[in-house]
Specification:
The complex is a heterotrimer of chains A (about 200), B (about 160) and C (about 140). Chain A has about 200 residues and is of the alpha+beta class. Chain A has helices at about 5-30, 50-55, 85-95, 105-130, 145-160, 190-200, and strands at about 35-45, 60-70, 75-80, 135, 140-145, 165-175, 175-185. In chain B, strand 7 (about 90-95), helix 2 and strand 8 form a beta-alpha-beta unit. Chain B starts with a strand and ends with a strand. Classes of the chains: A alpha+beta (about 200), B alpha+beta (about 160), C alpha/beta (about 140).
Chain lengths: ~200, ~160, ~140
């Protein structure tokens, strides 16, 4: 079967993000003392009206960390957990049991935000190296809100140009267990074009 | 075109980004909003309404899902209501959303721009705005009840409120 | 007399880890900063022997802080501690006067050793183990 232009583009993007995810996994593994790794699940185009459902994001409140990429080649990276998983990660990073207080302490929020920072910077470092463009992340933003609301704002830059959105979905694993956390990376249209161009130049 | 998803149990339709849904009493229309706008137009006598999930202020002539842009959503909503037998006169509008949740890669203050655009288009169409819950930095879950035209707005950490 | 350290990072957990490590190695942590401008202001106020400095911070970033600190004190000893490990950025940091760089997630022993190189103690400081710490400290270790 002849591959469409879009199939080839998606395959290129998959290759690029898989390589970046490998680096991000190494960073995550170091940060969590060998406990947690990440893998690229999928790079795909999704109709705008279905994007939340396609990513398995319902209408519940989630714990999230958002990083934006600054500069001409932008994008957003969203780290998402439900409340129990978020608290569990924070507790393991702090070497403690999950606190009895339902309110998150500043240290717990910081642990999660820094997880997002380390992951986000690992992606940014890899993408900068692979596509030869300067990419700088924002400081991480810790949020507890509707996942759909955050996702909406993250996809705006793509939505300006298209009704189908490109998203990269990254899963977390603890040894052999899949965790109910995920990272969604939403590149801007400019980033997508730069990636395609750098791959074609390398071939 | 993918239609809003319906929960058969509760006659509740979820309206995704760029979509518009219409409903009659006792149906409810729901959307989760960040920088987007949930705009409801309602005819109180006929108990018929539409909810649009508007993403961007201005189509600038571009194609897209009818609910995606403020300037295309409102005319389409008026058409849908006309098809349900509800004329433009006598309609009221309620809107929610337009938050700015984080400094993203998209246009700055897109939430504010969306609010402004929707209100401008409503004024041009002569539809009276009777409720608004906009801005801030938090997401909103809105449920529009076609039985009485109430829009319920939920935000994390706050009790629900009604427009 | 203990060597003094200013810790600049927007992440409370990282400031905590660095403070714990530094105190255990004989440093006196005299101040903290959570953004680049705060780092400059605190440096001017405290004149520490050394600074650990993150790059990605809100409002004003680490490069802004580095320029401000070096302008105030061309002899300042600044150790950049960041997850942002890019040739261009690091080149700018070293050009601006950074003394060294440690990547996050960092190995505490490596961070301590790098600080020691910047500003050696007169007596040898105890090396930090890389094992999880007790309940009063953060447990994150890496590298």
């Amino acid at each position: 079967m002849t591959k469409t232009y879009d199939d080839r583009t998606l395959a290129l993007l998959h290759e690029l993000f898989a390589s970046a995810t490998h680096d991000a996994s190494a960073a995550m593994c170091r940060w969590t003392d060998g406990l947690i790794t990440v893998t690229l699940d999928e790079v795909r185009r999704v109709p705008m009206e279905e994007v939340a459902a396609a990513l398995g994001i319902g209408d519940e409140l989630l714990t999230m960390v958002v990083l934006s990429l600054q500069g001409e080649l932008g994008g957003s990276l969203i780290l998402l957990f439900d409340e129990p998983n978020g608290r569990q990660l924070a507790a393991s990073l702090l070497g403690r049991r999950i606190g009895a207080d339902p309110e998150w302490s500043e240290l717990e929020k910081s642990a999660i935000a820094e997880t997002g920072n380390i992951l986000g910077c690992a992606y940014v470092n890899a993408l900068t190296r692979l596509i030869g463009a300067d990419l700088l992340p924002s400081a991480p933003c810790f949020l507890q809100d509707y996942g759909v609301s955050v996702l909406e704002q993250a996809v705006i830059a793509q939505a300006m140009f298209s009704d189908t959105l490109l998203v990269c979905q990254i899963g977390f694993h603890r040894q052999d267990e899949d965790l109910d956390w995920q990272v969604v990376f939403v590149p801007t249209v400019e980033m997508q074009r730069a990636v395609e161009q750098s791959f074609r130049a390398a071939v | 075109m993918i239609t809003p998803t319906t929960s058969a149990k509760t006659s509740e339709k979820t309206v995704g980004m760029g979509q518009i849904a219409a409903g009659r009493d006792p149906e409810r229309l729901r959307a989760i909003l960040g920088s987007c706008i949930g705009l409801a137009l309602y005819h109180p006598r006929l108990k018929a309404g539409t909810l649009a999930h508007i993403v961007l202020p201005d189509s600038a002539g571009r194609d897209g899902l009818p609910g995606k842009f403020a300037d295309t959503a409102v005319p389409r909503m008026l058409d849908m209501l006309r098809e349900l037998g509800a004329p433009a006169s006598g309609l009221t509008a309620k809107l929610a959303g337009g938050a700015n949740m984080f400094a993203g890669s998209g246009p700055l203050q897109i939430g504010d721009a969306n609010v402004e655009a929707v209100e401008r288009v409503l004024r041009s169409a002569g539809v009276r705005l009777v409720g608004r819950d906009v801005g801030g930095t938090s997401g909103r879950r809105v449920t529009f009840d076609c039985a009485d035209g109430t829009m319920t707005v939920e935000q994390a950490g706050q009790p629900p409120r009604s427009l | 007399m203990a060597r003094t350290l200013l810790v600049a990072d927007d992440a409370l957990i990282i400031r905590q880890i660095i403070k714990d490590m530094a105190a255990g190695a004989g440093w006196e942590v005299v101040g903290e900063a959570a953004n680049g401008q705060e780092a400059i202001d605190r440096y001017r106020e405290l004149h520490p022997d050394a600074v650990t400095l993150d790059l990605v911070m809100p409002e004003h970033d680490g490069l802004h802080a580095l320029h401000g600190i070096m302008e105030f004190d061309p002899q300042a000893k600044v150790l950049v501690v960041s997850a942002l490990e890019q040739r261009g950025v690091l080149k700018d940091a070293f050009k601006a006067g950074a003394a060294d760089f440690v990547a996050k997630p960092f190995n505490r022993g490596n961070l301590q050793a790098t600080l020691e190189k910047l500003f050696p103690a007169t007596a040898p400081a105890p090396l930090q183990p890389d094992s999880p710490m007790d309940s009063d400290s953060t447990a994150v270790s890496s590298g």
